[in-house]
Design goal:
The protein has about 110 residues and is mainly beta. The protein has one domain. About 10% of the residues lie in helices and about 30% in strands. A four-stranded antiparallel sheet has the order 3-8-5-6, with helices on one face. A two-stranded antiparallel sheet has the order 1-2. β5 and β6 form a beta hairpin. The radius of gyration is 14 Å and the shape is globular. The two termini are about 20 Å apart.
Length: about 110
Amino acid sequence: MDFKSLRRNGYVEMISVTIYDCIILADCTEWRSSEDSYIPGIATDATGANAANWNPFFDLNEAKQECILLNSGCGGVTDSGSGSYSLRLGTSFTPSPSGEISYLKPTDPCEGKY
């Protein structure tokens, strides 16, 4: 059993990841991106709690990794344009007048390919 960390409110929580949670690279799809768009809604954790109070991510790959760990509680990542990434709940792009860039999590994300 492998353990992955999940940041929340400044604390690191350890969650277990079994071999069944891993995606074989041959059977995966890549993230889609869209300029001038955002993904609506704020990601939630396994309890359904809003992830709004989570610290923003400053690394896109780290944000994508955390989004994958949230399973269905996260549909993608939005870059506000300032280099900070937020985890989002929605599963589609919405036009943004403020120049945001968003990344939709695929149904079968590639392990190690963010």
